[in-house]
Specification:
Layout lengths: L1 E4 L2 E4 L2 H33 L1 H41 L1 E5 L14 E5 L13 E5 L7 E8 L4 E5 L2 E4 L2 E2 L23 E2 L4 E5 L9 H4 L2 E2 L3 E10 L5 E2 L9
Antiparallel strand pairs: 1-2, 3-4, 4-13, 5-6, 5-13, 6-11, 7-8, 7-10, 8-9, 11-12, 13-14
Length: 245
């Protein structure tokens, strides 16, 4: 670049030109900042109440921001804990219908635990929640009656396992067990590996393995652990021990 001086054209380095421009820019920026900050500073000096008000508002906004951040962190943590518990530990269910009378009433709320079956196999008498064979988007609750290797037959209004009658003390008096489409009266069925025969306690009103057959192990969601509502019925679900089995 060229400029004229007293002694003719004079060369100026590009870096010198950039330095001059940068210096002018910083000077202009300081002027603009002073146009905003200085009046506010002098106003605060002349009127201390204004300074106090500004400080109070700044402190309110700072605390409000910290409070909202704490709430967000708490919500995220609670959601993460809920998802972990729901997916791996416990799941709430509501009883719908009368198929488990007299032991579970329509409208009761219960918790299904998912931990024990990760370390052990389901047992006879366990009450389980599982994906319903008619519609796997819906969960059913039934009792495990027969395990893999068992020979089960319905006859004389009772369940026989390996030629021995199953004594079911949890059934209502005078309840008879009849066969259906899959498990017909008098016809024996050998339960295959990884299968379970599940029946409702209210046999005349229950759609169960007698109609749609055995349930695979991977369809079982978990074991019913506790009834938590209504409060008068709240409590742990009792284990069942069968005589002779």
């Amino acid at each position: 670049m060229l400029r004229k001086g007293l002694c003719g054209p004079e060369r100026i380095r590009t870096s010198d030109f950039c330095n001059v421009n940068a210096t002018l820019f910083r000077a202009e920026l300081r002027v603009r900042r002073s146009e905003i900050i200085l009046p506010l500073f002098y106003s605060c000096r002349q009127r201390p109440a204004l300074a106090i008000i500004i400080f109070v508002y700044m402190e309110i906004f700072r605390r409000l921001g910290a409070f909202l951040l704490d709430i967000l962190q708490t919500v995220v943590l609670a959601l993460a804990i809920f998802l972990f518990v729901y997916l791996f530990l416990l799941q709430p269910h509501k009883i719908k219908g009368d198929s488990m009378l007299p032991n579970f009433q329509d409208g009761e709320f219960l918790l299904t635990e998912k931990v024990s079956y990760r370390f052990s196999q389901p047992k006879r008498g366990d009450i389980v929640v599982f994906a319903a064979p008619p519609n796997e988007n819906e969960d059913f609750i039934k009792r495990i009656i027969a395990l893999a290797g068992d020979r089960i037959v319905v006859k004389e209004g009772r369940i026989y396992i390996n030629d021995f009658p199953l004594l079911e003390s949890y059934l209502s008096e005078n309840i008879a067990t009849e066969g259906s489409k899959f498990l017909e009266n008098g016809e024996e069925y050998l339960v295959k590996p990884d299968e379970y025969i599940l029946l409702g306690d209210n046999r005349p009103r229950s759609s169960d393995s007698r109609t749609w057959g055995p349930v695979k192990r991977d369809k079982i969601v978990g074991k019913v652990w506790i009834v938590y509502w209504p409060i008068p019925k709240a409590g742990l679900v009792r284990e069942v021990i069968y005589a002779g089995f």
